[in-house]
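look at this record:
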Amino acid sequence: MGGAPVGGKAHVVAADVPVVHPAEQEVLDHEVLGQTELPRKVHEADLLVVTVEAGVGFNESLQIAGQRIGGALGQELRLTMQENAMGLALNEALGNLLLRAETPGLRSFIRSVLQGETLGVSIGQILRNVASEMRKRRRAFAEERAQKAPIKILFPLVFMIFPAIFVVILGPAIYAITDSLK
């Protein structure tokens, strides 16, 4: 029985499989999970509240949210649940999530959950409070942007729109005045 050794074939096949180490994973940008996704985060927090209050466990609730949420946050939730499925405690997996994507909303969510589990507070109540806090942040962010809008509109208004209006309104009047003076 000649032929190539089986180990050689397996080595060639295994060499084609890319190896990804957790340390090489890209750390998410602060803006990816920051204010740009804030409106979506409120709905996702509500999804967690509804699933937990419906009787689903917190781990399963995070899995459901990870499957239904798109974008960077959904990817991070799925990665966190994969870490948990591989044997990492949920507290450690959430801590790793915080290290990968540290944003104010995510930080308050994870710290609230960890503190609630430590103190034995109902996870449903914690999630309701976090969702309420996120709504308040979203409203404050919207009000802040609304207060900045008039200042941002001022310069285009003064330098682009007013000159055009003056030409349209005063142009015929100036033409009539110069015509009557002749």
Remarks:
- Residues 123-181 form the longest helix (59 residues).
- The domain at 22-147 is CATH 1.20.81.30 (Receptor-associated Protein).
